[in-house]
Amino acid sequence: MSLTVTDLRVSYQTLRGEVRALDGVSFTVADGEILGLAGESGCGKTTLGKSLIRLDGRMRHAGGTVELDGRELPIGDDRAMNAFRFREVSLVPQYSMSALNPTRRIGRMVAELLRSRGETLDRAKLETRLGQVGLPREVLDRYPIELSGGMKQRVVMVVSTLLDPSLLIADEITSALDVSTQQAVARALAGFRDAGHVRSMVFITHDLALTARIADTIMVMYAGMLAEKAPAKTMVEQPRHPYTRMLVDALPEVGARHAGRRLTGIAGSPPALLDPPPGCRFRERCPLADDGCAERPPVTEVAPGHHVACWKV
Amino acid sequence: MLTPDMLKLDDVTKTYRVGALGGKAVTAVDRVSFDVRAGEVVSLIGESGSGKSTIGRMVLGLTPVTSGSITVAGAPVRPGRAYYRSVQGVFQDPFSCYNPVFKADRVFRLIKETYHPGVPEDEWAERVRAAVRDVRLNPGEVLGKYPHQLSGGQLQRLLIARALLLDLKLLVADEITSMLDASTRVDVLNLLADLKTRGLAVLYVTHDLALGTYLAERTVVLWRGTVVERGPTEQVFGDPLHPYTRRLLAAVPRLHAPWEDAPEVRSCPYHDVGGTGGLAEATPGHFVACARLSDCRGDVP
Ligand SMILES: Nc1ncnc2c1ncn2[C@@H]1O[C@H](COP(=O)(O)OP(=O)(O)OP(=O)(O)O)[C@@H](O)[C@H]1O
Ligand code: SF4
Ligand SMILES: [Mg+2]
Fold it and tell me: Is B197 on the interface with A (CB under 8 A)?
């Protein structure tokens, strides 16, 4: 077992109270597995990713455990986590591309970054890795503005996996890329796993079709909780949770025209996480909801590896 | 019906200076021409770094053109209060657009003070809540929060809501749905479709072909700063001519089918077409270019 998350609870402190962004989430990621994490904006994907590596000042570890390769990660202890960051767990954050310093050449930036982590740059290894994602070593002498989005994203990926972490968390790293670059980046990620540069991966995206192409398993979250987790193929072909089913139906295919058929979204919005209502959090928007749903549905395994949190499955 | 050009780009080029002392020039946008009519959505497709955001920034007057011209409703871009009342942009990276020390409701307050000072308080509050609900957010959940307390998609939608509160004629929407899940995206797209029938012109910048086709009458495909193909959406995607456009179509992730392998493009079949500005008219209104007229050897990306 590579990653085991048990009943993880993380909240944000605000003046108005605690925002319960993760409210008891449990799952595992096996060695060699790519877990695709999907779900509506605000459901807690980034929060989950961050929790595994760095809780920012306003985040509070409210309960639950995270175990990586048999060792418990001290996620509530910022200092103690330093030993794991980058070496055991690495994160490519949302919008990391636009965070590249525009006035520094790529090579210098990488060296500085490594130095700040107390590591020295192994130039030969860096060049080999760049080659593996199809980048010439000359990119190191360029400025960020001279690289296309796909190139920048691959640079960030290479750098964050340079120390061969066990777990890589990639947060929306392809959302700004064109589809052909997206495909190249997604395949490069799978290649890193195949080559053993990282052992397992959490691939965060809002794009179900993309996750379906590269993840082994997909986990869909809703309002801070797990809704469904299943092998990728099962998730897109036989989703069981009402939310996942509606999500799959809302996807436009290329060629669909507004004038032809108006797609429908899911009416309503998720509940506020400041003081979430008890029971199933999808209740207000769920066509199947009844009185029983006023109680929180447990996560049940409906088939091997297929977990669903809904009373009606 | 004859609809006037709301936005017109004519041979627009943008070069940036980079490096120590600005010693190096990078051409981000290279002789780009196209237009958007009132009540029309034109999608501008290309990867990040292909120049599409630069085009958006120039239209909004955030950065000047190096050469060529941009006109909005027949007049040159003139940044200022009057201009921004009718021309607004919503950008991809929502965090960079917000002042981090302003709460969301403060942002809406500024809009009122700047553009709608005469609107009574309670009416304004209701308008804000309606706009926030239009983008599928819960007003009580988001209005009292600072930007860093919101998720990427929540911020993105607040930016759209903000733009909706002005008397918009032209909206530059740069990857506005890139952080949204399928269902929320559909809501936002349907919202744009409704605004379009009310005469709004939208420059819809995206990398997502499915979303582009869903809304747009016409499509412009941008590659490394140049237009490689443009025309009616059905033709550009139904009968893609340029190798880059074909590649894009092949790479669209589909829910139920494995990825097609991008077609091998051995030689670019268009590298000797003539035509003005490097674009040849294949069928009426459908233009295609060689990827790089000057140095094309067939090795398109
Ligand atoms: N610092 C904060 N203080 C209070 N609430 C926060 C804070 N950061 C995030 N939240 C809230 O926590 C919830 C989860 O946010 P998170 O960023 O994890 O969502 P996400 O799934 O990554 O969304 P997206 O797809 O839009 O990036 C949201 O409701 C958000 O408003
Ligand atoms: S538990 Fe009830 S409300 Fe929740 S998803 Fe299932 S049927 Fe719908
Ligand atoms: Mg996020």
Answer: no
Q: Where are the domains of chain A?
A: 3-88+166-308, 97-164
Ligand approaching nearest to the C-alpha of A300:
2
Domains defined for chain B, CATH in brackets: 5-299 (3.40.50.300)
Instruction: Choose among A102, A149, A180: nearest Cβ to B48.
Output: A149
Q: Are A174 and A186 in contact (CB under 8 A)?
A: yes
Which residues of chain B, if any, have pLDDT below 50?
1-2, 264-276, 291-301
CB B246 within 8 A of CB B258: no
Q: Count chain A–chain B contacts defined by CB atoms under 8 A.
A: 197
For residue B252, the CA-to-ligand 2 centroid distance in Å is: 32
Helix (H) or strand (E) holding A143: none
Which pLDDT score is estimated for B94? 58
- Report the DSSP beta bridge partners of residue B203: B42, B172
Task: Give the per-residue pLDDT at B21.
Answer: 65
Q: Where are the beta strands (DSSP E) in chain A?
A: 3-14, 17-29, 34-38, 59-68, 71-72, 89-92, 167-171, 200-204, 217-222, 225-231, 299-303, 306-309
Does the structure's ipTM exceed the value 0.85? no
The reported pLDDT for the residue numbered B19 is 66
Q: Is the CB of A86 under 6 A from ligand 2?
A: no
- Tokens read off for B158: 């607040």
Question: According to CATH, what is the number of the domain A3-88+166-308?
Answer: 3.40.50.300
DSSP string, chain B: ----EEEEEEEEEEEEEESGGG-EEEEEEEEEEEEEETT-EEEEE--TTSSHHHHHHHHTTSS--SEEEEEETTEE---SHHHHHHEEEE-S-HHHHS-TTS-HHHHHHHHHHHH-TTS-HHHHHHHHHHHHHHTT--HHHHTT--GGGS-HHHHHHHHHHHHHTS--SEEEEESTTTTS-HHHHHHHHHHHHHHHHTT-EEEEEES-HHHHHHH-SEEEEEETTEEEEEEEHHHHHHS--SHHHHHHHHH---SSSPPPPPPP--S-TTTT---GGGEEEEETTEEEE-TTTTT--S---
Query: How much is the pLDDT for B299?
Result: 41
Which residues in chain A come in under a pLDDT of 50? none
**Cα separation of B168 and B175, whole Å?**
18
Per DSSP, A298 falls in state P
Quick check: B170 and B4 in contact, CB under 8 A?
A: no
Residue A109's H or E segment, with its range, is helix A106-116
CB-CB contact of B49 with A149 (8 Å): yes
Contact B92, B173 (CB under 8 A): no
Predicted confidence at residue B41, as pLDDT, reads 94
